[in-house]
């Protein structure tokens, strides 16, 4: 029941819906007593032989009125109660979404997309069911059930009521028990299905390998095996699922048996009429639902509570990276300066970056090279505050990055991340992602700079071509260039290319870099790359190794230093030079 | 149509189905017999107030016996239907999965992976609902309704005949509801899938969203979809409120009124009638619950049928992968590859390969170079017989490619892909790939050959180290070495290399290069190269541009031509020249 207390804020907010809805439920419950009463009157009248058309007409007329009223009320309480529940679902989904958009990347790194999705879908659904069906089953099982029992006991015969109801609690208990058994087995079946799903996923994405190695039959065999598991787990569910109907039939059958056989004695005694006995059995039939509802209720509440707790604990995570007090809301510009002694993601972990000190004057280009995992991406993320740097270690224009509002900071920086993520939308919308109101001319200009314009024109719908899950598939290089265009459209003061040219061929890379040099004169650009050609023209190049700056300088200077950079460079060049006739290249 | 085809899947289960149906009939009979016995009790004993012990005990015993027997049969019947349904879906799944295994790659190009997976899993799951819930609900409830009517006729034929009016009324209500609810439910599903798609995309792309400061806009967009979903839900709630339970309950009440009127106006007020009246009301009460249940399943029916038709569409797909033709069973002996004036297009419109002719002598290496989209991968795809050329001929050892059996071809042609794909399993399984004749020693030898042995042996569980989804626990260099080992374990005569470039550190790359050189020795090799430096020792280099071979020759010859290759080479070399100056 705690879940209802937890949801109290919502019931209060939706006071009107719930008060009216529950009131209607109560009226329906009261009216529902009436038909059986009329049946009893008519039966007794027939038996007594004094039934008149006027008598019959009067009661049937009233019955029709009651029926129509119930119809209307039943319609409205549904709209009110289920409507409120849907609004709760809507609100929780919206809250979660808003919460997610405040979270920093660490939050998402620590959790899987599938799990977060499950919270926003299944858990919200479960809470929604609690606010709708939960309230309904609560009211129905307690009020409708209570009312019917009361009517039976007070107006017909309390002894018979007691006797016939003996098997009923067992039904509520059984239904509740089956419910939780079902749930557990169902989860296992779900897991089996999800394994099956993974298998299919793997098979489809590996289709070329499957075919090239002639694995078709082996794949079929292992799939068959997985379907067998799915069937088994589902049969386990079926075993319990098939219990519901028979159990209800059995219990209700016993109740009827008790009612009719013991009722017969009371009729003989003259304590009841046959009409009353008929009325009694009708009520007995009406008790099935409240009993079922009570069984369902325990499960609904249990699941709703667990789900609500999960949602709540997710919402309780406070955002790690927020605007600091007194942060300036001005676009950052000017010299970029790092004065980082040591940075690690969590306390006690080995540092990701150590003794990184450098500055990039406004308008200059910085190149960052180094092996995978040497800290290049972390460097950029600190600048963007996607990862929080230690206070007062990273500056733009003399102000530490945490001195800017997040919005201002990111507004001044154009970022092309390593993993080119595109949204399911048109190419135009993707390029204009950071500035939805951009004109077509702006979009095309950015596309031209990123050397993707021609490619786009060749697509079926040009700039309106949809990409992403439901759209066309683009090559990695095309995706990279679109995400470059997306950043360039903002014409940012600072541009970051995080290994964003890796899937682009050398010629296109050269064209893009050339276009950037012309177009971004006077603006700062930071480039990380594996291929040295991408950073060759940088004003300064940092060579990172294990999070520290091993070498620094211009391309020429670094070559002279004969360190890692020169070695790497030589390796990239050596073979071609040997072919050219040998001899030492420099 | 779809329905008939689905029902055909029941054929192998005819026997259990007949048994289940018999159980259903018996259980239903036992169920409706209850009120009839009560009627006998009321009319023959209670109303006249005579209570002979023996017949009454018999009556009570019969009631209890019927109840228990009915319940037991109900359980087994229900379970049997469920199990049959699960087996049917298993067969459907196995069929569709098997079918997809033999579809051509051209099919996979057309069909996005996500929606293909969804057809094979979610759509078949929806068909499962159809069998498990919808069909069995309908069968069980229709039998129940029929059983109730039989009982009604036994009680009072005249009144039962009047009650037959209920059937068209119920049917009309169901048809009306189905028609109205179809679009409403479709809308709910559509909105829900929009909502989930938006949410999952936002979660995955949150970094980009935040960096581009679009949180508010996307929140608004999500809110909009959320609202649409809510409105669609409300529509179905209203519809259900108007036509489902409340309406059915109203009908029940009207029917009860009719029965009362029948007994009242008919004035056949003899005591004999009271038991009949009791049984009628009791049975009619049971009549309407099945109606409620069937109506609730209606909205799923449509959805399941749509899903089923999607599954069948896949089963009917014609684009099978090319397989071996002809009687003889040639095998690859030498590995001499000839492309003779080959033309090819993926979509039948834009030719991606034009007039491609070249020969690779046994043991030679031919390299393909060119920009992205110049046709390098297409050549490999044709050689591996993933696609059939539009015109021209490809032969291996003088035998046309299409004459080789699939096995013969896959056995002798080793593909090393740009993006090495690992399967869930162990390291050893990934090298062996279900190959029945490979010994563990051979697997290890292959690993040693490509220098993957050292890193494998340093893993906590060595060759038995589990490989996770897509092998993400391994670095891309390690993944490549594993895929090399996988290829070498089969000792193919022909090697097809799709060179990987990006994101491998220099040291691993060195190892990869060495292994590649050893692998190529003594094998006919066709290699796609991104870095010209890696293929300078090739016997022949083909330079592709927009689907045509524009230059061919050895590295030195091509440089001397000073054409496209020369330019590409210079571009990769510019820095070197600068330094050399």
TrEMBL record, chain A:
One of its GO terms (molecular function) is ATP hydrolysis activity. Residues 19-303 form the ABC transmembrane type-1 domain. CDD domains: ABC_6TM_TmrB_like. The chain crosses the membrane at residues 20-39, 59-77, 135-156, 162-180, 243-268, 280-301. SMART domains: AAA. Residues 336-571 form the ABC transporter domain. Coiled coil: none annotated. GO terms for cellular component: plasma membrane. It is a multi-pass membrane protein. Keywords: ATP-binding, Cell membrane, Membrane, Nucleotide-binding, Transmembrane, Transmembrane helix, Transport. It is found in: Cell membrane. SUPFAM superfamilies: ABC transporter transmembrane region (SSF90123), P-loop containing nucleoside triphosphate hydrolases (SSF52540). InterPro entries: AAA+_ATPase (IPR003593), ABC1_TM_dom (IPR011527), ABC1_TM_sf (IPR036640), ABC_transporter-like_ATP-bd (IPR003439), ABC_transporter-like_CS (IPR017871), P-loop_NTPase (IPR027417), Type_1_exporter (IPR039421). PANTHER family: ATP-BINDING CASSETTE SUB-FAMILY B MEMBER 10, MITOCHONDRIAL, ATP-DEPENDENT PERMEASE MDL1, MITOCHONDRIAL. This is ATP-binding cassette, subfamily B. The lineage of its organism: Bacteria, Bacillati, Bacillota, Bacilli, Bacillales.
Automatic annotation (TrEMBL), chain B:
The chain crosses the membrane at residues 56-76, 130-153, 159-177, 242-265. It is a multi-pass membrane protein. PANTHER family: ATP-BINDING CASSETTE SUB-FAMILY B MEMBER 10, MITOCHONDRIAL (PTHR43394:SF1), ATP-DEPENDENT PERMEASE MDL1, MITOCHONDRIAL (PTHR43394). The keyword Transmembrane helix applies. SUPFAM superfamilies: ABC transporter transmembrane region (SSF90123), P-loop containing nucleoside triphosphate hydrolases (SSF52540). GO terms for cellular component: plasma membrane. Residues 18-303 form the ABC transmembrane type-1 domain. One of its GO terms (molecular function) is ATP binding. It is found in: Cell membrane. Gene3D superfamilies: ABC transporter type 1, transmembrane domain, P-loop containing nucleotide triphosphate hydrolases. The lineage of its organism: Bacteria, Bacillati, Bacillota, Bacilli, Bacillales. It comes from the Bacteria. This is ATP-binding cassette, subfamily B. Coiled coil: none annotated. InterPro entries: AAA+_ATPase, ABC1_TM_dom, ABC1_TM_sf, ABC_transporter-like_ATP-bd, ABC_transporter-like_CS, P-loop_NTPase, Type_1_exporter. Its main location: membrane. It holds the Pfam family ABC_tran. Residues 337-571 form the ABC transporter domain. Keywords: ATP-binding, Membrane, Nucleotide-binding, Transmembrane, Transmembrane helix, Transport.
